[in-house]
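Board notes (copied after class):
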Amino acid sequence: MTERRDDVRRRRSIIGTSLAAVVAMSLSACGGGGDDAGASKTIRVTLANHVWTENIKKALPGFEKQSGLKVEVTQLGEDQLSDQYNVKLNAGSADIDVMMYRPLQEGKLFAKNKYLADLSAQVKSETWDFGDFQSGPVEATTYEGKPVGIPIITEQEVLYYRKDLLDKAGLSAPPKTLDELKAAAAKIKAAEPDVAGFVSRTGKSTAVTQFSSFLYSFGGDFVDGGGKAAVNSEAAKQAYAYYGGLIKDSGPANVSTDMGWPEAMAIFTQGKAAFYTEANSLYKNATDPAKSKISDQVGFAPFPAGPGGSRPYNIPSWALGVNDSSENTDNAWKFIEWATSKEQTLAQQKSGVPGARTSVWDDPEGTSTFPKDLAEAIAASTKDGVGHDRPLVVQVAEAREIVGQPIVDAITGKDAAASADTANAAFQKFLDDEAK
């Protein structure tokens, strides 16, 4: 999570002498091209504070021993990471070789500004198998038809639910469609006055990512096939009305319109809601007895189908890219190829970090640490998942504010269709301005 900006000093990795959980991978599998004669044997890697980072640091001694290279890690909080990228990438600095970045937050900006190297040649490595990566995450790390990043951490939206409340309501299974979800939420709220039938994010900006799966499942998207604003399409208007209406009619009493995931999750884990749609990456908040009063009653199901089918997002929350100004690109790719290998992805996933490789999800060992129903829900989500959970633009924060307004208006009982028309005009102007 975000750290304060009071210290931007580098934190170098401490390379231990023991080889903890190292992946056995031959050097022949590494290499996006021949070593440059003057290439540095030190790879400078900038990573975010994340479990993935901690895991990769523990495995680094094995990579260094096998490759003869040294990895120098700079690890920063998200705000500090953004600050460093803004300074160094804008200046064309070669101080960074490999960088961990958020494809849906700054990916388009980085690619447009040519901060990210084109990896088209590197991904052709047969032993590494780029075709094993899921299409949704690959879509989000591709710019103008060229891969510029490799997804390392994925998220999908799934349905969290209370097993005991479903049993009490006489429901034999979680809802498979959005119509069934609406009916079940209303039924439980009517029978349990102190419990909401449904909860999810309500903040104008924060709700956009979770609303996106509803939008796609109604058959809509933020833009149409021609790149024009589409948040006032008939499908989008139905999605806004549905999402807002579900929270308004079956949500918590006196629901606020500024809830992010911590607030919505708290309502669910305190036993105050029957259904909750959220990113699967947050599931341990609901299943950990230390954090959840209903940990033993939590179930997971695929995102319910709407008129357009079940179309949850399937996104890479983080990816690795090569700094286009790096003078050590061959060795930078060797690190990425190792860090995103099947073996490393499996090791990461067993520790609870969802990866983007199909083979790892198909491997029983790859889902062994996940609740069985969650693993099944994730597997279903990856089949038809959409590779973005927000508008794919440069100024993401501003776009989210625009397309999120109809969500708030629908929750508060205003005309969702009229709000969508207003938002669409503003969003189209935004797109036109950004294209200039």
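Comment from the instructor: The chain is about 40% helix and 15% strand. Confidence is low (pLDDT under 50) at residues 1-35.
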